[in-house]
C-alpha cells in the first residue's frame, strides 16, 4: 500500500499570473493562459516508462484509496449493490476499480456480500489511457459494461447525459488535485452525483479546516490554496462548506509525510450552487501548485495570508 504520497514535485518555477477580476469570474470561464506550465503538465500526463516523474503515481490500490480517503469510503463502497454506479475520477490505470472485483475484496468485506451480488458498475476516468493487460483481462471476465474506462478528456468535457448518475464518486490525487477549474470541477461532480450519493476526495498540503482557531506558523504558500478578496487565506473545507445542497466533513491526516486533508461530500438536494473560484497561479507538478481567488468572502478563514510569491 502507498502509505505516503511520494513527494509533491512542483515542476515549474512558480510563475504567478494574476488574472483575478479580468473576466474569469464564472465557474465555466476559460482559465488564464499559463501556457508553459500547462504544456509541462500535459507532458506529465503523457509521460511513459522512465519519463514518468517519481511523484506521478497511477497505480494505487483500493487499500491505498481507503487510507487516503475519509473512513466512510470503505462502507459506502461495500454497501453498493448491482444497480449502483461508482465513478473514479483520475483513475490512473484503474487499479482500485480492479481490486473491487477481486475475490480478495469479498473476503475482506464479508458483511453485505450477498446484497452486493455481482457488485456495482464502475467507471474509471483518466485524461490519458493507462490501462494495462490486467484491465483488459478483468473486463473480459466481467459482464459487459460492468467496468468502463473513459480517457482522452477531462471531467469537464463530458456532458451530464454521457456520464449519467453515480451513487459514489471518488478522486484520489486525480482531477480535484490537478484541475485549474476547481469550481467547475465541483459543479460537474455534483451534477453526476445522485441525491444522497457521496463524493470522497483528498488534497495534499492545504490550509487546514481548524487553522482559523489556532496559530498557524506558515508563511510559504500551500500547494493548493484559496485567497479571499481581502488577501486572507481560505480553506478548501470552508469553500466546500459554502456550497449549497451538500453536507461536508473534512479530516486532516497529519500522519502522512505531507499532511493531507480528506473530504466527504454528501449531496442532500438537487440545486447545488458552487461559489466560483478563479485560478491566479498554476505551476505544473505532481500535483501542480494552484492558487485560486474566491469571488466571495469565505468564512472561517480569518488568518492573514503572509505568503508572497
Ligand atoms: C496521479 S494520477 C492518480 C491516479 C490514481 N487515482 C492513483 O491514485 O493511482 C492522476 C490522474 O488524474 C487524472 N486527471 C487529472 N486531471 C483530470 C481531470 N480534470 N479529469 C479527469 N481526470 C483527470 C490523470 O489523467 C490521472 O489519471
Strand content bin: 15-25%
Amount of helix? 10-25%
Number of strands: 13
- SSE string, helix = H, strand = E? EHHHEHHHEHEHEHHEEEHEEEEE
Radius of gyration: 19 Å
Strands in their spatial order, largest beta sheet: 4-3-2-5-6-10-9
Low-confidence stretches: 1-26, 301-309
Give average pLDDT, whole number.
87
Bound ions, cofactors and other small molecules, one mention each: S-adenosylmethionine
Number of helices, counting only DSSP H or I runs of 4 residues or more: 11
Largest sheet, if any? 7 strands, mixed
Separation of termini? Answer: 35 Å
Could you say which structural class the secondary elements and strand pairing correspond to? Answer: alpha/beta
Q: What is the 3D form? A: globular
Describe the overall structure.
- The protein has 309 residues and is an alpha/beta fold.
- It has helices spanning 35-46, 62-68, 72-79, 95-100, 103-108, 113-116, 133-141, 160-163, 175-178, 182-192, 236-241, and strands at residues 9-10, 85-89, 121-126, 147-151, 166-171, 193-204, 224-227, 233-234, 246-253, 260-267, 277-283, 285-286, 289-294.
- Strands 4-3-2-5-6-10-9 form a 7-stranded mixed sheet. It has a 4-stranded mixed sheet with strand order 8-7-13-11. The chain has a two-stranded antiparallel ribbon with strand order 1-12.
- Strand 3 (121-126), helix 7 and strand 4 (147-151) form a beta-alpha-beta unit.
- It starts with 8 loop residues before the first strand and ends in a 15-residue tail after the last strand.
- The model is unreliable at 1-26 and 301-309 (pLDDT under 50).
- Residues 45, 56-60, 89-92, 125-128, 154-155, 172-175, 178-179 line the site of S-adenosylmethionine.
Amino acid at each position: 500500500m502507498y502509505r505516503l504520497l511520494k513527494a509533491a514535485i512542483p515542476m515549474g518555477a512558480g510563475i504567478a499570473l494574476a488574472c483575478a477580476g479580468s473576466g474569469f469570474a464564472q465557474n465555466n470561464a476559460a482559465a488564464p493562459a499559463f501556457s508553459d506550465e500547462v504544456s509541462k503538465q500535459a507532458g506529465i500526463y503523457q509521460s511513459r516508462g522512465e519519463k514518468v516523474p517519481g511523484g506521478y503515481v497511477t497505480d494505487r490500490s483500493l487499500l491505498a484509496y481507503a487510507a487516503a480517503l475519509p473512513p466512510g469510503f470503505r462502507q459506502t463502497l461495500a454497501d453498493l449493490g448491482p444497480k449502483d454506479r461508482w465513478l473514479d475520477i483520475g483513475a490512473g490505470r484503474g487499479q482500485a476499480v480492479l481490486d473491487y472485483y477481486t475475490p480478495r475484496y469479498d473476503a475482506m468485506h464479508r458483511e453485505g456480500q450477498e446484497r452486493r451480488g455481482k457488485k456495482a458498475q464502475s467507471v474509471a476516468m483518466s485524461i490519458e489511457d493507462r490501462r494495462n493487460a490486467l484491465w483488459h483481462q478483468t473486463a473480459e471476465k466481467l459482464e459487459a459494461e460492468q467496468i468502463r474506462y473513459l480517457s482522452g478528456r477531462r471531467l469537464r468535457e463530458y456532458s451530464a447525459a454521457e456520464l449519467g448518475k453515480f451513487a459514489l464518486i471518488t478522486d484520489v490525487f486525480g482531477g480535484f488535485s490537478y484541475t485549474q477549474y476547481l469550481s467547475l470541477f465541483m459543479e460537474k461532480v455534483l451534477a453526476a452525483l445522485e441525491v444522497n450519493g457521496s463524493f470522497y476526495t483528498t488534497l495534499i498540503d492545504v490550509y487546514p479546516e481548524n487553522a482559523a482557531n489556532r496559530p498557524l506558523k506558515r508563511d510559504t504558500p500551500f500547494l493548493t490554496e484559496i485567497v479571499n478578496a481581502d488577501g486572507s487565506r481560505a480553506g478548501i473545507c470552508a469553500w466546500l462548506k459554502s456550497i449549497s445542497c451538500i453536507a461536508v466533513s473534512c479530516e486532516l491526516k497529519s500522519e502522512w509525510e505531507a499532511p493531507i486533508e480528506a473530504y466527504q461530500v454528501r449531496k442532500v438536494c438537487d440545486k447545488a450552487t458552487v461559489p466560483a473560484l478563479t485560478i491566479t497561479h498554476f505551476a505544473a507538478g505532481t500535483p501542480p501548485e494552484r492558487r485560486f481567488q474566491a469571488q466571495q468572502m469565505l468564512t472561517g478563514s480569518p488568518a492573514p495570508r503572509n505568503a508572497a510569491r
